Amino acid sequence: YILFSTFLHIVYYYYFYLNIMSAPIATSALLSSSMKWAVGGWSFFILENFILSENRTFLISQIGDDGYHIAYGTLSTTAMTSVFYGYFKKVKNASPLLWKMGGPAPLPAKLGSFLCLSLGLGMASQVPPKLQVPVHYEGRELISSAKIDNSRDGLTVPHDNKEGGWKVRCPFDFTDNHSKQEGATSDVHGLDRISRHPGLWSFGLLGLGNALLVPSVPQRAWLAMPAMVAIIGGAHTDSRFRRGMGGELPAEYDRVTSNVPFVAMFSGAQGNVLEVLRDFGSEVKLLNAAIAVGAAGVFVLRKGRGAKL
Question: If we measure between CA atoms, which residue out of 51, 30, 31, 43 comes closest to residue 80?
Fold first, then answer.
């Protein structure tokens, strides 16, 4: 109840106050059938996951491991069915609207969307192998002979080892493992620096980025709910792991990482912030991230002016 009430307050402030909607319209929208479908399905999904995972040991002792997983799968499938049914039948393009359907989004919405989508896609882009430019130029390489030429007073003689020129290579660098950099300020590296749950937060940020570009208030709420899944789901997973339920969360790793993105990085938990950013820059797959940011920009430019994708 507390989490649901908190979410409603966030929705009220973020979607209505910031968009200068009158209080009667905002209240009406929050109590509408479309808003209930937008929030209800996701809330059911969060709640059933919370209850079943929190009581995992007890339920397995009562109905067995197979029974537990059948129940978990059935309830999760039911919840997600209601989520997508609600979206396509009750929520998509539902009123009230913050601007005309098909019209351009306000500039602040575009900027916020670009930031969220860049972060979400950027985090997702670190999962595939490192991308590299498929052609590169190599200069002529010379090596010295290991044999001594007595006629030249013991001087080593350079020999051509490799012809230079443009070379073709695989666009994926499978040899790159982006392991922790030598001399790094923390034991964590890569996406772990950002969040303990990068997958959840990538999903949540992509939802928020899309939410900012649609004028429908219920549709915005529906698209924002994956961020609530990340907040609540990530926090609950951490709580269970701290108690040794379903996994482990070592105290030191817990101290230097965070659920919410960037909190540990910018709070100093991982060391000097500038040094942490330097280390992170050397660990990230830069070309992957650049392509992700470019894709986010193209999407916002097209969707932000009302174009259908």
Answer: 43
What's the count of helices (H) and strands (E) in the chain, helices before strands?
A: 12, 6
Q: Copy the structure tokens of residue 23.
A: 């209080």
Here the tokens at position 34 are 């479309």
User: Which pairing describes strands 165-168 and 141-144: parallel, antiparallel, or unpaired?
Assistant: unpaired
- Is 80 in contact with 88 (CB distance < 8 Å)? no
Cα–Cα distance for residue pair 125/214, rounded to 1 Å = 25
Closest CA to 207 of 129, 106, 124: 124
Strand residue runs (E) in 74-152: 130-131, 135-138, 141-144
pLDDT block averages, 10 residues each, the chain of length 309: 44 46 60 89 95 92 93 95 96 90 92 96 92 71 47 48 67 64 64 95 96 93 95 94 90 95 94 94 93 96 82
Q: Contact at 8 Å (CB) between 258 and 195?
A: yes
Rounded Cα distance between 205 and 300, Å, is 14
Contact between 157 and 149 under an 8 Å Cβ cutoff? The reply is yes
Strand partners, 172: 131
CA-wise closest residue to 105 among 298, 300, 295 = 300
Six token digits for residue 167: 């070379």
Q: From CA 221, how far away is CA 37, in angstroms rounded?
A: 10
Cα–Cα dist 28/42, whole Å: 21
Handedness of CA 122, 126, 127, 132 (dihedral sign): positive
Listing DSSP states for 261-295 in one string gives: TTHHHHHTTTS-HHHHHHHHHHHS-HHHHHHHHHH
User: Which pairing describes strands 158-162 and 165-168: parallel, antiparallel, or unpaired?
Assistant: unpaired
Q: What is the pLDDT of residue 176?
A: 64
Six-digit token string for 216: 């429908």
